[in-house]
Q: What sequence folds into this?
């Protein structure tokens, strides 16, 4: 096992208290996005501790052992524009931002390959992105987008403000929770936003994590799983007040939050979510201990059922080489998979972390159809099945429950 370059935390990432309780420990695991470019790299593959805690004071679910961002993000393998549902999500999100706020300048941190920047720029908005991944920002600049390679901190925010003026919106989608020090992002947003500017965050939602037992999103890259309660407390500490929030379907269930520093009144959507979280005890540690127990039970079911299929000589492939897939194949010890299908050129041709299963383009599945296709990207199962309607074998999804169809 390789230890971390960044030291483990001893206090909560949200409230800074030491009231942390262990709920799940997966032991040493490979990085979810640590795809290997060839067999010669197997010997150098690293594994890192993966333990999940909850803060009994504020209810924040978090991974305390941060892997150095230079390891996680410098050669990133996730390109949003290769996933049709995400392209549509960001097209409609950009339109919603324009309709509601009429922004002149929008800055997005964790912009990936510019999947949100593109529709904003096409609509005449000055759209600027920030992302630490060199290979991904090169893709964005190749589309003619204004993107900074680096971290969204006060220095970056000051530089952007110097050339573009204050921002009307600072936004981040599935990026805020990747940071061990969220206060640095909030300080950067405060530096860059106009006095009446809006901070818009999309984060994987602890409510969906709980409802559908999405333990497979608990990997090193995702350091924090916010509820509106825990996120609202963090934002208040840094001068931002939540004025609206809603649940959205992105990534199997996410939370969209709007916050500002001008004291605007809270909308009914936020009130309803706070009430839901209180009713379902999202801020209580006992809730997350129960979540862990049920997750382990579901993992055992999938592991045993698929081990029996493999023992019966059924040919099994996976579909979707995302972070979820890395969790399933390693925690359930699925080294018997023949291949994992993925359409992204950033992944196809490489090997899965841990099990070293070959990742292949969808065309390969047509040439060698398996008996069973395990949809590791289960949140896109309907899209995948429609795309591969020719397949006459058996499909399977592991969540919200193990299903074969």
A:
């Amino acid at each position: 096992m390789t230890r971390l370059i960044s030291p483990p935390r001893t206090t909560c990432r949200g409230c800074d208290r030491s009231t942390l309780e262990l709920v799940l420990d997966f032991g040493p695991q490979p990085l979810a996005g640590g795809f290997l470019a060839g067999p010669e790299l197997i010997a150098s593959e690293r594994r890192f501790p993966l333990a999940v805690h909850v803060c009994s004071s504020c209810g924040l679910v978090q991974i305390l052992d941060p892997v150095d961002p230079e390891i996680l993000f410098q050669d990133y393998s996730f390109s949003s524009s290769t996933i049709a549902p995400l392209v549509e999500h960001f097209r409609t999100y950009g339109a919603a931002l324009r309709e509601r706020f009429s922004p002149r300048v929008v800055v997005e941190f964790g912009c990936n390959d510019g999947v949100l920047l593109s529709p904003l720029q096409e609509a005449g908005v000055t759209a600027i992105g920030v992302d630490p991944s060199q290979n991904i920002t090169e893709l964005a600049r190749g589309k003619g987008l204004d993107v900074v390679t680096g971290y969204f901190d006060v220095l970056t925010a000051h530089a952007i403000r110097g050339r573009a003026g204050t921002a009307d919106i600072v936004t981040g989608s599935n990026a805020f929770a990747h940071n061990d020090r969220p206060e640095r992002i909030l300080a950067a947003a405060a530096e860059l936003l106009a006095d009446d500017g809006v901070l818009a965050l999309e984060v994987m939602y602890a409510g969906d994590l709980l409802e559908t037992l999405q333990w497979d999103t608990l990997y090193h890259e995702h350091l924090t799983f916010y509820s509106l309660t825990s996120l609202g407390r963090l934002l208040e500490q840094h001068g931002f007040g939540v004025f609206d929030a809603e649940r959205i379907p992105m990534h199997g269930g996410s939370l969209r939050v709007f916050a500002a520093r001008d004291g605007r009144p809270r909308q009914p959507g936020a009130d309803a979510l706070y009430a839901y979280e209180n009713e379902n005890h999202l801020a209580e540690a006992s809730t997350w201990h129960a979540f862990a127990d049920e997750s382990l039970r579901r993992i055992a079911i999938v592991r045993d059922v698929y081990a029996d299929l493999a023992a019966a000589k059924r040919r099994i492939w996976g579909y979707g080489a995302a972070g979820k897939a890395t969790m399933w194949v390693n925690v359930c010890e699925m080294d018997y998979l023949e291949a994992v299908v993925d359409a992204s050129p950033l992944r196809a041709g490489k090997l899965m972390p841990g099990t070293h299963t070959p990742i292949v383009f969808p065309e390969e599945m047509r040439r060698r159809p398996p008996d069973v296709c395990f949809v590791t990207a289960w949140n896109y199962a309907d899209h995948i099945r429609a795309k591969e309607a020719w397949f006459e074998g058996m499909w399977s999804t592991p969540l919200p429950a193990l299903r074969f169809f």
The chain is about 35% helix and 20% strand. The chain has two domains: 80-286, 313-404. The chain has a mean pLDDT of 92. The two ends are 38 Å apart (CA to CA).
